[in-house]
Amino acid sequence: MIAIGKSKAAETNVTVDSDSDCVEIVDRGLVNRSRACNLLKIMENFTDDQKKSVREIGFGGMLKVCLQRTEQHMFPWFVENFDYSSWMFNIGGGKQFVITPYDVYDVFCLPLNPSKDVVETLRMGDNVLKSEWRDHFGVSGNIPLRLVEDKIKDLKRGGDEFKRLFVVLVFSTFLAPIANRTADLRFIKSLVNVNEIRSFNWCKYVLERLCEAVKNYKKGEQQSVSGCVLLLEILYFHRLKFRDIAESSTLPLIQHWTTLKVRDRIKMEREAKCFGSGILDEETYPSIHNALMEMKQDIECRVEAVKDLAVSKNTRGLGNSSSDFVSPVVDPPNPNAIVSGIVNEINSLYGDSSGYESMFQSTLVNGQARCSISIGQPCDDVVYVSAFMRSNRAIMKSLPRLHQEIADFCLVDDDESPLLGVDLVWYDLNHSIPGDELLSLQGGEHIYQSVLEHWAILLNLNQAATSVKPQKFYFGVEQSVFIPMLISKHYFLFVCNFEKKTIQFLDNRVYEEKDIDQFCKVSDVLADMLSTFLDIRCHPNASNILEFQMEVVNFDWKSSTETNDCGVYAMIHMLLFEGSSFTCEDLKRVKKRALMRAQICATLVLMDANSARSDVLTRLQEFNPQRGAIQKEVARRKKIKDQERKKQEEEENADKRKKVKEDKVEKSKQQQNKENVEKKGRNLRSVKLRKQASKRRRMQMLRKGRNQ
User: Is 73:270 a contact under the CB 8 Å cutoff?
Assistant: First the structure.
């Protein structure tokens, strides 16, 4: 938040040079309340579990903020030149550009889902939800941020509560700060389901909150600007080549700016004639943005084409056959010189890969689903850095060299890995897998949903480019519709089989009859939804789906034991299932499933459709010569990390034992006090009874004396 000082001397005056159209700030009186210092102090002490929780909700870019202090000298000029209605930033001299949610993503790498806006609470409603938050902190009014900060510090293991509180803290202090250091509850409806936090368009929300704040300030409705004005500053620094210097464009952009660097840049600009003196960079940043837009449009055309295939009346399995089928996937444009160069280098370095066979290699052979570059031959001389590859060394040697190197490079679980937050698989603006999510393919981990979504995209690309008509369509089909499901961290698969007229249930788990009944209910709901989906598109068999019964498909690897490999089973089912049970001995063995994880990782990264492949391969070539040294450093950090975790667990166990002992002592004291009270009560009753007995005896003696 930024606020105008109350004194007359603090007012901001703006003058315009009519010759150059430059805007110069004569007096700067804005006070910046949006400071990252408190946020950074908290984040610098985050445990590994807390950092992992931040990345799981898609806010990993915030961990790379390094601005201890926000310089405010240019803020009045930014606010003056930003149009909240058109999102246009006018630098002056005919230089201007539009700021979009994609720009917010570039700066902070927050979740960006154009189809799902952040849901706000009603101003005079949602009182129950607001009250729950206030009751949780034991307050009746606004929640002080210090309570949120203290709670976050206590939640060392991360978790759902930590994730919610972190989003509230980040927005209340940095992305959309409010006055008086209190928690912002405007968006808590979007935090109810923690698993959906990363599915909202937080980038658009940050921009809209900034526009709202600038609007209220310019109309005189507020004496402050609550919003992330720092966003304007970072974008200005990157869009304007001051002294003909282009800033680094690696994401998130915020990571390139320290307090000292910002201060030096502002100092140089203040020494110039006016702010905005420089060349608008129309090569680095805008060209990247335009390229992404063109690629997005191309991808959307392809997706629509694949969807049309799924509901076409003239494709085998859904209607009459046709012999004039044309693949909807257009040939990709020729790669640029950089991509071509790294591909040629890889081909010459790894040589011929003929002779190597696997279920992935033999199935994924069409269009952009295949890998057109050389992957080499199986070898045993790759130095593994990742703990996952080292622990499965014997079986990983059966993979081609490039697969080994890619899987090992991408699955290094280290806090200082340069791949954390970097997109290793990039299909379009809405579909990508950052390094920390691809890391879930290491053994023993629950596989992220984004991995399965891209696996479905890969299989759709493979089907769409077949020489015959596509027989399958994967949601997230032709003769079969494949629908992966995720419930309570367990993956399974429903397949709508138009040929058999059934909804087939594929799972690696064995269930009791009562559980199967529940899945039948899910199948009925799914059939209704799919029927509606096809009916809207006038499909002739839409109503028939409602009559499809669920069929449980049996496999000889099914077990009643829970396993984090459920994602592996689901992806192999999607790859190999053709309408009936099949055999796959590798799925029965733990080590073979670990091998499949590595193969899936390498397959997703190396497929031709991955726009980030050339960047990953370039990083790999820089990584390979240093494998030995990096392996030792990673092992050293892991040892320190394990020691710290062990120490933390010992301290927690000691605290628990101490608490148990204290509780035992307290309970013993309470019991003793209770016994003492009861004993005292018994004594008092005994004394009272004795007194009563003595009194009765005296009365009896008195009556006896009178009678005599």
Answer: yes
Rounded Cα distance between 316 and 321, Å, is 5
How far is 531 from 548, CA to CA, in rounded Å? 11
Between CA 5 and CA 28 the distance in angstroms is 10
Q: Where are the beta strands (DSSP E) in 233-278?
A: 240-241
pLDDT tens sequence across 61-84: 899 898 877 776 788 888 888 998
Average pLDDT over residues 529-535: 75
Element housing 480 (H / E) = strand 480-487
pLDDT band at 171 (very low <50, low <70, confident <90, very high): very high
For residues 457 and 465, give the distance between their C-alpha atoms in angstroms, rounded to a whole number.
12
When pLDDT is cut at 50, 70 and 90, the band that residue 12 belongs to is very low
Contact 604, 575 (CB under 8 A): no
Name the nearest CA neighbour of 534 among 477, 474, 467, 600.
477
Which of 263, 272, 317, 293 has its CA nearest to residue 499? 317
Residue 573, pLDDT above cutoff 60? yes
With contact defined as beta carbons under 8 Å apart, do 446 and 563 qualify?
no
Dihedral sign, CA of 577, 582, 584, 590? positive
Task: Give 472's pLDDT tier (boundaries 50, 70, 90).
Answer: low
Q: How far apart are CA 473 and CA 635, in angstroms?
A: 43
pLDDT of 531 reads 80
Tokens of 108: 């902070």
pTM tops 0.85, yes or no: no
Find the DSSP H helices in 272-336.
285-311
How far from each other are the two terminal CA atoms of the chain, in whole angstroms? 103
